[in-house]
Amino acid sequence: MSQSADVVVPIPLSQGVGYGVVVGLGVAFALGMTAVTKLLKKYLGEDNKTTETFMVANRSVGTGLTASAVISSWTYTTALLGSPYLTYKYGIALPIWWANGQSVMICCFAYLAIQAKLKVQNAHTLLELIKIRYGTIAHIVWIFLALLNNLLNFISMLIGASTAVSSLTGIDIVAATFLLPLGVVVYTYFGGIRATFLTDYIHTFIIMIILVWFTIKVLVIKEIGSIGALYDLLKALPTEGSVVGNHKGSYLTMTSKESLFFGIIHITTNFGIVVMDTGFWQKGFAADVAAAVPGYILGGNAYFAIPWAFGTVVGLGTRVLESTPAFPTYPRPMTAAEVSGGLVLPYVSQAVAGKGGAVAILLILFMACTSVSSAQLIAMSSIFSFDVYGTYINKSATDKQLIRASHVGVIGSALFVSAVATGFHKGGVDLNWTLYMLGIVVCPGTFPTCFALLWKGQTKAAPTISPIIGMLAGFAVWFGTAYAYSGEISIVSTGQTLPCMFGCLASSFVPLPLTLAISWIWPSTFEWEEFLTIKKVDDTVNHQVLDQSSYFSPERVKYMKRMSKIAAYWAVATFLGQIVIWPLPMYGARMIFGRSFFVAWVVISLIWLWLALIIANFYPLLDGGIKQIWTVAKGKVVKGEEDRTSSSGNSTFDTVGVSVPKVE
């Protein structure tokens, strides 16, 4: 129960409802996905007991499911909780910086995904690539960096989710922290990354419907009534004109220093998160050759609408509703601790739709938490099985032994993350602190990792030395500026905007000149053909030997190079459009939104949100989903390479209308 001043915020749902969702629904999903995994094995030949299926889904995932998985991968509970509460604090500029801080790098990753298909088609994890190119020392450094990335992302998401679940249901926060990943462990244990893709789709299906419903519900509640009325109510607020760092202190301006600073942190951090997250690389490896680029581009641009539309409507709607009797804390405003803890969304759900709203938000937080948990567990378990166990403990590990190690990794990772997140709770760390400081830890490997796949000239010493120095520089700047601004180093001082921004920039960009300088001083050249020494664990699929010369047929190589150019153009266009051309000039314009402009702004964001729903929910069904469901429903066992896409990338048509020659 939250309590502050003399107003007690009632808990809208019972603990029974909370445990029913967290445990009951988790178990139901686990049993359902386990059953689906068995059906896929029986009727579609997807054997989750082979490493190729468990870890990279036979590299055959289509465009629709890839796009849906991308949207799901970014729909963190931190996004659902964070974009509304930061919009509540800083106004309409913030959700744009949140959105482009996650959309742009996914479109950029499309280029890395197709380059991986072109150069390292047999890889299972990012760290295999590092080991082949830079050797043991760099590999160990990257194991550490990748695990830190996955660990802190997982913890950040779990801290926000468990706090919100506890506020909605009264469940003990420690219990919520351990129980939220429980069902995920079961279906990830049995189904591997294919189960991750499928549950991503189901979770995203439910999340998108609730997000669309909830944004409309906020706008039509009697205390607001319409988009135009929301604008009028914002202008009439006594706090309008008092936001520090905003033009004329308004909530309705893009000239917002705190939003800009957050955007710098968010964009820099999320480039690091994507590039250093082995889960994103695994989904790239798992995508079919024809699906990698369109899947990531579609998913990345569709995702933009979620923090933009949801953050704008819910964040600004909360600012208005807080001063009405409908709001749980009325007549007092929310405390700083409640806001930074991510309770804006749980509170406004009660104001808008009572217990029904609380249940809806509880569901999407559970869905987002478990979906991201599944991806993180697969990523962390793959590091343990392939890059630790298979590389240093049992170099001649069989397929069965690697799967067993993956299972151990799934269970161990869930327990470890829940334990650390509990420690963070007890230490007074909240969602806001983890959100702002994350990039200082995850960003040092960003540029060296990209160069590992894109630049032959990066030498072995460069990626070993530069990220370590970059991280040390980031911590030095972070702690130094926190002390300079506050006179102390504490949770409060290190969670401030500017220390986190300066530390994040140092951590991310110090490695860039270092790796260039080291590579120039001790030059060497890497031959991409060395990546071909990475082999599949079982080099047969349906008893057919995979032929490298067939995979690298002139037609397929030409196609992948063309898709690489398309991905590069999209990456540049997205960066320019969503960062340089759109919000930055509006920041400099020093304008306050007029009523008509505000209405158009919100309407466009809602249309974009509906398009995202179509891409996430219905496109995967049209892109092969219905056919596979019908195959399973008929009980027809698929045999032979001609009936399904195999891991050799034998897709016959891609979603952008280009035929990809089938390998015979």
The major sheet is characterized as: 2 strands, antiparallel
* Contiguous uncertain segments of 5+ residues: 53-57, 539-546, 639-664
Give the CA-based shape.
globular
Q: How many whole angstroms does the radius of gyration measure? A: 24 Å
Question: CATH-wise, what's the superfamily?
Answer: Sodium/glucose cotransporter
> Strand percentage, roughly?
under 5%
Count of discrete domains:
1
Subcellular location: Membrane
Keywords: Membrane, Transmembrane, Transmembrane helix
GO molecular function: urea transmembrane transporter activity
Organism: Tothia fuscella
Descriptive report:
This protein is mainly alpha-helical and 664 residues long. It has one domain: Up-down Bundle (Sodium/glucose cotransporter). 73% of the residues lie in helices and 2% in strands. The chain is built from 28 helices and four strands. It has helices at 15-44, 51-56, 63-74, 77-90, 93-119, 126-134, 136-169, 173-179, 182-220, 227-236, 257-276, 278-286, 292-303, 305-321, 336-340, 344-393, 399-426, 431-442, 446-454, 461-486, 491-494, 497-509, 511-521, 548-551, 554-581, 583-589, 595-617, 619-634, and strands spanning 2-4, 7-9, 540-541, 544-545. The protein has a two-stranded antiparallel ribbon. The chain has a two-stranded antiparallel sheet with strand order 3-4. A hairpin with a 2-residue loop joins β1 (2-4) and β2 (7-9). α6 (126-134) runs antiparallel to α7. The protein starts with a strand and ends in a 30-residue tail after the last helix. The model is unreliable at 53-57, 539-546 and 639-664 (pLDDT under 50). The chain crosses the membrane at residues 16-36, 56-76, 96-114, 134-159, 171-190, 202-221, 260-281, 357-390, 402-421, 433-455, 467-486, 498-522, 566-585, 597-619. It comes from Tothia fuscella. Belongs to the sodium:solute symporter (SSF) (TC 2.A.21) family. Keywords: Membrane, Transmembrane, Transmembrane helix. Pfam families: SSF.
